[in-house]
Design goal:
Elements (H helix, E strand, L loop, with lengths): L3 E5 L2 E5 L32 E11 L6 E9 L7 E2 L2 E2 L2 E5 L24 E7 L2 E6 L15 E10 L2 E9 L3 E11 L1
Antiparallel strand pairs: 1-2, 3-4, 3-12, 4-7, 5-6, 7-8, 8-9, 9-10, 10-11, 11-12
């Protein structure tokens, strides 16, 4: 096998193939560290603007990172629960999920509260789930199967929150960790 060195963007890559993969949207981790695994006492997400970094640790894009903006707000009173689950926040995001091998389900930038780009399910006092993609978050459809991308918030941090993420269809095809920092 002949090894060759290719320049992809501004990164030198040793490659055994004669091609160049599309570079990640952002490869800086900006201080994002993996969650400690210890569950913090209380995890409560608040409305606001966050810079979120996703790092892939499993899947075809393992070792890659992307980041973007996540905006969260309180939905209208009629949308505070969904299927008996508390949904205290909805919002939108411009995170380029494909750079870490995650599924994109509709428009992440949707601001429609009935099918937002992001929705928060408060699981209990120790965790919350942020589900991404307007198609995944349609309130007129209850999903039993299909593609998903979820962020499981397990740590409150002084400047934001952190946890693990997974994406797939019948099972995870990409997983990793993430950090959200208030902007």
């Amino acid at each position: 096998m002949r090894m060759s060195a290719l320049v992809c963007g501004s990164v030198l890559v040793a490659s055994a193939v004669a091609g160049c993969a599309r570079p990640a949207a952002h490869t800086t981790l900006a201080g994002c560290t993996a969650p400690t695994g210890r569950v913090t006492d209380i995890v409560v997400l608040t409305p606001g603007s966050y810079q979120v970094t996703l790092v892939a640790t499993f899947g075809d894009s393992a070792g890659r990172a992307t980041n973007g903006h996540l905006q969260l707000a309180v939905p209208p009173d009629s949308l505070l629960t969904w299927g008996g689950r508390a949904t205290p926040l909805v919002g939108f995001t411009d995170i380029q999920l494909e750079f870490v091998g995650a599924s994109t389900l509709g428009d992440g930038t949707s601001t429609d509260p009935a099918m937002p780009g992001a929705i928060v399910f408060q699981e209990d006092q120790q965790s919350a789930i942020i589900r991404l993609g307007s198609e995944a978050n349609r309130r007129d459809v209850i999903r039993f199967e299909g593609a998903y991308t979820v962020l499981r918030v397990t740590e409150g941090r002084p400047d934001g929150f952190a946890g693990t993420w997974s994406s797939g269809e019948m099972g995870p095809v990409a997983t990793g960790y993430f950090c959200g920092v208030a902007r």
